[in-house]
């Protein structure tokens, strides 16, 4: 009987031990790998970097609703890693424990799209907050988190009706169909993205998210290409507020005293080794990504000041 029990225990350990180890080694991105840059591009790159730093065996954790869920995952599982929008981390740090390993592995920008030609600056959006419907991401997405930050700065947006979509493609279609006045999302400024092609084909316009007050929230204004031009036309260039993609992992303060000492060592080694890797290694190197990085520029002061002034003038006129 003892031999049978021991044989069963050995078999159980052979099966269970790898599963337990794998549970410690997950990386959270965003949606499915075939559509999400977080899951399909950043996660494989991060796995490669971890392997080179002798931290092997990490796997994609599966689909995620976005930044808020990713922060929760590394809070609950300190050995996990995740991608997150940097603009949301400051407000989440009081409720969740996490460590920012790399604050900027690429840009993410704020996009406000509409079918209505009369809206052409941020002041029109804020000044008509009582009369708009906004389609944005799910309630654990980075887009929704950023929208809430905007609402906290512009009280007029509290009156806007908000509907939640499961992905950016749905947001575009909702605006194209006239079911929402605006679509709001946060996404990498990749001009080859299908999203920007769909926006252009649907005849939608992108309203610059630019105003004096946004700088207090830590955003910077970038000029970027959002669609390629045709054979005899120029590419579409816009200026809007941008943040960055951050790599996060757990925090030593959130590891229970009863935890295996190897868990504490893994978190410490992961932070130390990844922070020592040059920032440039975390940026994707494919042709489309290089083109994206090459076409991002800080907006000139003249452009920024003109957009800010226009937004404030519009807000003032609409509030009278």
Describe it for me?
- This protein has 320 residues and is an alpha/beta fold.
- It folds into 2 domains: 2-105 and 246-291, D-Maltodextrin-Binding Protein, domain 2 (3-Layer(aba) Sandwich); 107-243 and 294-319, Periplasmic binding protein-like II (D-Maltodextrin-Binding Protein, domain 2).
- The chain has helices spanning 2-23, 37-52, 67-76, 89-92, 122-127, 142-153, 168-176, 194-201, 261-276, 287-294, 301-319; strands spanning 26-28, 59-60, 81-85, 99-102, 107-114, 133-136, 161-164, 182-187, 205-207, 220-227, 236-249, 297-298.
- Strands 1, 2, 3, 4, 5, 6, 7, 8, 9, 10, 11 and 12 form a 12-stranded mixed beta sheet that branches.
- β6, α6 (142-153) and β7 form a beta-alpha-beta unit.
- The termini are far apart.
- Mean pLDDT is 88; it is low at 1-21.
Kindly summarize this structure in a few lines.
The protein has eleven helices and twelve strands.
Question: What is the topological layout?
Answer:
Blueprint: H1 2-23, E1 26-28, H2 37-52, E2 59-60, H3 67-76, E3 81-85, H4 89-92, E4 99-102, E5 107-114, H5 122-127, E6 133-136, H6 142-153, E7 161-164, H7 168-176, E8 182-187, H8 194-201, E9 205-207, E10 220-227, E11 236-249, H9 261-276, H10 287-294, E12 297-298, H11 301-319
Parallel strand pairs: 1-2, 1-3, 6-7, 6-8
Antiparallel strand pairs: 3-11, 4-11, 5-8, 5-9, 5-11, 10-11, 10-12
